Every structure is written in C-alpha cells, then in structure tokens.
Amino acid sequence: MAIHPKCSAWRISSLRLVSASFFAALVALSPAKAEEQSKCVASPHLLWGDGEHDDTAALNAWFRGETVVWAQTHEKVGAEIADHTFLLSSVVYISSGTGRTLERFRMIWPERQETVSGGTIRSGDDPDKPPVAEGVTTIGADPDEGVPYEGPPSEPLDHGVPRHCLTS
C-alpha cells in the first residue's frame, strides 16, 4: 500500500520551520541506513485524551492513519474520536486521506496558552483534498492557523516502525 507523498495537512501549532528543520536534521544524522532493517520493536502509541498526559505523538500517529490504542483500556482507537481533551506540547498535523474524524474536542497547549476546540475535523478519504474543519474555535492561536498547506513527507517505515527508531 503506497502512501501519497504529497499530503495536505492542517497545522494546529505555530511551530513551523523550527520543527521541520529539527526533524530533517535528526533524520539526516540518524545512524540507521535506508537499507538496514529496523531493530525497533513495533508497539502502538498510547492515546490518553484526558487532558493530563501529553498526547502529541499519539495524536499525530492517529491522524497519519497509524494504529493507536487508548492508554486506559488498551483498546484500538477507531477512525472517529469524540468528546476528549488532549494535552499537547508540539505541532499536530492532520494529514488528508486517512479517513479520521475528530468531534467535540479540546486541544490544549499550556506553554503557549493556546486552545483549539470544536466542532469537527475530518481528514477525508482523498489524499489530494485538504482536511475540513467545521465549527472549530481557536484561542491564543496565530492568524494563519488552520490553513491547509503542503505537509512534511511521510517517513519511511520498516514493518510499521520508523526507520530512525525515534520515539516520544
């Protein structure tokens, strides 16, 4: 199954170039070669959705279409999430074409005093069409937040595990 290399993403954080540059530097400096088999153990991200634990990595993985499990129950998170609060510390990308829907939610970045809540965000099933946000409210966000843009390329995976073995 091929991943579309040019996905539209919906940015929900004001960290732009710094995050992309840092990620690019980490990948470039990674000792793992593209041909080498990853030695990481595949385990799904844990999503809390309680507003008390950092959900940044798990929410990004879920929006990319990866398998994520609820931390409390260890049940697989489905394609739709409703009525949860997410504590976040960094950028959240919503990739198009992954069939994910987030409804009646709160995303909180306490360090920046930013909150995004709503409504609904749908990634849709078409990787060539941007995600759609309806009824989403932002407090403390930059004026250009929530605008679809060309997102970072998908990271190569070996059997579902990132080749560089970074975890958060």
Plain-language structure description:
With 168 residues, the chain is mostly beta strands. The chain is 12% helix and 35% strand. The chain contains 2 helices and 12 strands. The chain has helices at 17-29, 56-63, and strands spanning 8-11, 45-47, 50-54, 68-70, 80-87, 93-95, 101-109, 114-122, 132-139, 148-150, 157-158, 161-162. The strands form 4 sheets. The chain has a 5-stranded mixed beta sheet with strand order 3-5-7-8-9. Strands 6-1-10 form a 3-stranded antiparallel beta sheet, with no helix packed on it. A hairpin with a 2-residue loop joins strand 11 (157-158) and strand 12. The longest helix has 13 residues, at 17-29. The chain is globular. The two termini are 26 Å apart.
Q: Quick one: how many beta strands? A: 12
Helix content: 10-25%
The global form is globular
Content of β-strand: 35-45%
List keywords for this structure.
single chain, disordered N terminus, mainly beta, 168 residues, 3-stranded antiparallel sheet
Can you summarize this structure?
The chain has 168 residues and is mainly β.
Helices and strands in order, then pairings?
Blueprint: E1 8-11, H1 17-29, E2 45-47, E3 50-54, H2 56-63, E4 68-70, E5 80-87, E6 93-95, E7 101-109, E8 114-122, E9 132-139, E10 148-150, E11 157-158, E12 161-162
